[in-house]
TrEMBL record:
Pfam families: Ferrochelatase. Keywords: Cytoplasm, Heme biosynthesis, Iron, Lyase, Metal-binding, Porphyrin biosynthesis. Fe(2+) binds at H179, E259. This is Coproporphyrin III ferrochelatase. One of its GO terms (molecular function) is ferrochelatase activity. It is an enzyme of class 4 (lyase). Belongs to the ferrochelatase family. InterPro entries: Ferrochelatase (IPR001015), Ferrochelatase_AS (IPR019772), Ferrochelatase_C (IPR033644), Ferrochelatase_N (IPR033659). It comes from the Bacteria. Its main location: cytoplasm. It comes from Ferroacidibacillus organovorans.
């Protein structure tokens, strides 16, 4: 019996070059090629951040540090990366685990907050592949309230607040944000919005921040309504109320990628300049050791749930 425990680290994925953008976008659109104007716009966004997103490299580093941290006390873990929209895909990663003789595994998504339309999709695909491979896989549902995760975000907030003058901090709005999803998740009782507010409230409480709110960003281009208010709309409303300083804390994203490097650093920054607002954002966690520690804590929590006796 192979006693190695596999860890399936799941991430969104990103193109590795501009030549891969069309294939990537087509995969996101479930096999439907994007209209040329939308494709050109997406390629333009990648060019604006330097040609390619650093997400794949960051994910690789997160995986290396996760495996290293897990094996500090017990060298029996092996981490595999599975991507939702780019190779190595989730199902392929599961098949590789099975081929390596892995019989038991834990899956975790690099998204702290659970939604049936995000984390739920990853885990469904992973569990189906594991069932086919006759491998036992248990998945972390969410890890948005892990102490180490909150610790890392708290430090990022404190560092970002120092970028504002004392006068600006007297009327500063902190805006927490995450990727928007279609409004229909509300009718399903999806926990995503409330989990995001739980993280936001915890951070505001830690830093004694009273003047904060939540906004959504990076909504998809579809006919159905998406969750709002949008961060740019909120920024406009703040300007009308006389605010001249805004700190963005994108708690739904744990790494630098297009929705951060373009949507916030370029698009939101330009919008802020037009509105006369000093705009800053908290630095991404990327491979911060405390975020890795949060993943480890969540993984061990699932292990305890499925094996409360601690027997191996």
């Amino acid at each position: 019996m192979n006693k190695t425990i596999g860890i399936l680290l799941m991430a969104y994925g990103t193109p590795r070059s501009l030549d891969e953008v069309e294939t990537y976008y087509t995969h996101i659109r479930r096999g439907n090629k994007p209209p040329q104007p939308l494709l050109d716009e997406l390629i333009g966004r990648y060019k604006a951040i330097g040609g390619v997103s650093p997400l794949n490299e960051i994910t690789d580093e997160q995986a290396r540090k996760l495996e290293q941290t897990l094996n500090v006390k017990d060298s029996r873990y092996k981490v595999y990366i599975g991507m939702k929209h780019a190779a190595p895909f989730i199902a392929d990663a599961v098949r590789r685990m099975a081929a390596d003789g892995i019989e038991k595994a834990v899956g975790i998504v690099l998204a702290p907050h659970y939604s049936t339309m995000s984390v739920g999709v990853y885990t469904k695909e992973a569990l189906e592949a594991a069932e086919e491979a006759l491998m036992k896989l248990h998945c972390v549902s969410s890890w948005h309230m892990e102490d180490a995760f909150l610790d890392a975000l708290e430090e990022r907030l404190r560092e970002a607040l120092e970028k504002f003058s004392e006068e600006e901090r007297r009327q500063l709005k902190v805006v927490f944000s995450a990727h928007s999803l279609p409004e229909r998740i509300l009718a399903l009782g999806d926990p995503y919005p409330e989990q995001l507010l739980e993280t936001s409230r915890a951070l505001a409480s830690r830093l004694l921040i009273d003047d904060w709110q939540f906004a959504w960003q990076s909504a998809g281009r579809t006919a159905e309504p998406w969750l709002g208010p949008d961060l740019l709309v909120v920024m406009g409303e703040l300007a009308e109320k006389g605010y001249r300083a805004m700190l963005s804390c994108p708690i739904g994203f744990v790494a630098d990628h297009l929705e951060v490097l373009y949507d916030l650093d370029i698009e939101a920054q330009q919008h802020a300049s037009q509105k006369g607002i000093h705009f800053e954002r908290t630095a991404s966690l990327n491979a911060d050791q405390r975020m890795i520690d949060a993943l480890v804590a969540a993984i061990h929590r699932v292990e305890r749930e499925i094996n409360p006796s601690g027997a191996r």
